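for the writeup, i need someone to sanity check this before i put it in the appendix. the sequnce is what the collaborator sent (i think, or maybe the updated version? ugh). structure was predicted straight from it, no edits. if anything looks off just tell me and ill rerun, i have time this weekend
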Amino acid sequence: MGTAFHIENFGCRAARADGEAVGERLRAAGLSEESSAAADVVIVNTCSVTAEADRAARAFIRRAHRLNPEARILVTGCYAQRAPDELAEIKGVAAVVGNSHKALAPEIAIRLAHGNQDHEPPSSDLIPVRNLLTGPSSQPTPLWVDDHFAHSFIEEAQLVPGAQTRPNLKIQEGCSNRCTFCVIPETRGHSRSLPEESVLARVRSFVAAGGNELVFSGINLGRWGRDLPAESGRPRPSLAGIIRRIFAETDLPWLRLSSIEPMDWDADLIAVLREFGGTRLARHAHLPLQSGSDAVLRRMHRRYRPWHYAEKVGALLDAAGPDLNIGADVMVGFPGETDSEFAETCELIRDLPFGYLHLFPFSPRPGTRGWAMHAESPVPPTAMEERMATLRSIASQKVRAHRHQFLGRSVACITLHTAPSIAARGRTSALSENFLPVEIDGEIPANRLVTLHVTNMDSDSVLLASYHA
């Protein structure tokens, strides 16, 4: 009877948080974690934000089946929600579980691992939403997908500082914005929040397990709490409010916030950063930009203008100081993007003190307004490539300039699980409180909070540091 599993995660921090939660449930059930070639059940946690993400997931599924034809493959995530039939037709797929039913994925995976997927399900929740007959054997591939998203939070999973020193806690799911390029509202539904007491319980259990840094993640994290009812005697739930409760009611050493939309950095959240930044709240803010052109932002249906974005960056720097590490997502080649509009993006990026950028080309997604816009006015591939190259150069200069200011200084860090190639050089990987990659001269166990002295920076812009206990 097989008891080994493997999880392959694609996509954003929120997706990885889902994968971490599934893995924790499987380990708690007694399953061991192995490579995909040795596992009895392989969970493929997909992304579908771009066509390349879809392709990568399909390629992994086919490779996993080729290397381990006896493994049962469970596909979940955004691609599973968007196109379940398409995935069910791939040879080797034993079940498709959309984001709508992701909370059921651990139990379904356990049944697959033990080979009893054809037995009577233990609860009505595990009855597939519908079956699809595939392949010459006409064996049903069960699908758990609908548009109600009633089973999207995996609340039972415990957070521990294990394989992930800095695990993600997904406290918010879905998005109610309607950006013209984005398929997320279809694949994850409207904005929903993990209840406040559930968040606090998960944080307490993480601290009790010896955790030092926790990352709050979500699809639209800044909207956490807006759908929750106000409790008697308490203010209406908000992200700033839950952070204050965590710092008042738990001993969590470090909390990091993942991506938050510019307009959701309100005065109260900025005040929390001013009060706790650099002590218990990481001085790290990731604000999706997408474009520095007003006209392009309007076509994208983004809810801010370039000057709003710049003002928000200024307010964050005023609150946290120049050590704040600001990152952004930037999309290249949105339909109709002209040379002058792209130049506006470059100018804004040059003017702002970014510490890093996530760059990606526009990818038309079926069912979005951007799909039709792309058909009408696509940006030529050659222009797309040239613009990506230009921004990569600007981003590289930004990264080095930002990290150079930390040479000769002390930085607070958490040690990570170190890759064998780095450990072979007698070094330890770490991440600074303000999201700088560091390599320490010496061997230190993971999950230690340490203060390091930065001595140099290598050709990949990784900071090199020494540590004296």
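The chain has a mean pLDDT of 92. Residues 381-404 form the longest helix (24 residues).
thx in advance!!
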